[in-house]
Design goal:
The two termini are 28 Å apart. The longest helix is centred in the N-terminal third of the chain and has 23 residues. Strands 4-3-2-6-5-1-11-12-13 form a nine-stranded mixed β-sheet. Strands 7-8-9-10 form a four-stranded antiparallel β-sheet. Helix content is 33%, strand content 26%. Helix 1 runs antiparallel to helix 2, helix 2 runs antiparallel to helix 3 and helix 8 packs across helix 9. It has nine helices and 13 strands.
């Protein structure tokens, strides 16, 4: 039990310019601290992952909440999921528009309905019924997102490649002091996607999975590739077979790359509090908080630490 509690977050896989990579690194560290503060106060792993992901949704550096990429029409449509490893309860929303924190709406779907996923207008009606404030669509759009949308409307542009120029999907996994695991993932999706496109994030087993008997995973990367291999569940299958969080993550990512040519990354925990942050893309901003230490990195092989209480 001395490994617990722990929270691990990612700010998306890809390849980003230096000035943005610094913002992404500080963003994931802040999110990990926020999640860990909840765990340290005796809160649940679910509370911790929702708090960590909400912080990243509110940070315009990430492709989730404010800062989401735009669809082909220049609008924001967001997906999110949460899953509780104790009960296998989950909640998701897809293609939601005027909500600042889709991950919190996903949690309400889990807690307040008998369903696992609500989409588009139905999700908006549910949000209103739950008293979730609507925000103007413009408040979620950054200048950077609008510039990249315009650039990718040009003939010959490749939005999938260009997607890698922005930190993507955000996510978190955690184990609390009771040994319960949870995951949460949130995204604005693919750059210049068709209206109504839903990627891996809202799909259980692809965009996240948590089971107290195995662990929890939150992925990031090319959504369609992640869905083809049900990446989160695939990694947990390897953990069921006795692989460590790190080895299982690498196996799942290697399979996605060899089988469908997909790049991405994951954060993974097991119920004992062992964790991993692995990726096949050039970069993934990640951070973990455990035993009053923050661990973080951006490039393969990078692993920095600082005290949880050191000024940010």
């Amino acid at each position: 039990m001395d490994m617990l509690p722990v929270v691990v977050v990612h700010g998306g896989a890809g390849q980003i310019p230096k000035e943005q990579s610094e913002q992404a690194t500080s963003g994931v560290c802040s999110a990990a601290r926020a999640g860990y503060a909840i765990l340290r106060g005796g809160g649940s792993s679910m509370d911790a992952v929702v708090e960590a992901v909400s912080q990243m949704e509110n940070n315009p550096s990430f492709n989730a909440g404010c800062g989401s990429v735009l669809n082909i029409k220049g609008e924001v449509e967001m997906d999110a999921i949460v899953m509780d490893g104790k009960t296998l309860g989950s909640g998701a929303v897809s293609a939601v528009r005027n909500i600042a924190n889709p991950v919190q709406l996903a949690r309400l779907v889990m807690d307040k309905t008998s369903h696992a996923c609500l989409t588009a207008e139905g999700a908006s009606q549910f949000a209103r019924a739950m008293g979730v404030p609507e925000v103007p669509p413009e408040s979620l759009i950054t200048e950077y997102s609008r510039m990249r949308w315009k650039k990718n409307l040009a003939p010959g542009a490749n939005p999938v490649e260009s997607q890698m120029g922005k930190m993507g999907t955000v996510g978190a996994v955690a184990v609390d002091s009771e040994g319960n695991v949870a995951c949460a993932t949130s995204t604005g999706g693919m750059l210049n996607k068709m209206e109504g496109r839903v990627g891996d994030t809202a799909c259980i087993g692809s965009g996240g999975y948590a089971d107290n008997q195995m662990g929890a995973v939150s992925p990031t990367g090319h959504g369609e590739a992640i869905m083809k291999v049900t990446l989160a569940r695939l990694i947990l299958f390897h953990m069921e077979q006795g692989q460590s969080a790190e080895a299982a993550s690498d196996l799942g990512l290697a399979y996605m790359k060899s089988r469908v040519g997909g790049l991405g990354g994951v954060v993974t925990v097991d119920p004992q509090g062992h964790w991993a942050a692995q990726f096949s893309s050039l970069q993934m901003a990640w951070a973990a908080a455990q035993k009053d230490t923050v661990h973080y990195g951006l490039y393969t092989g990078e692993h920095f630490t600082q005290s949880i209480d050191s000024p940010q």
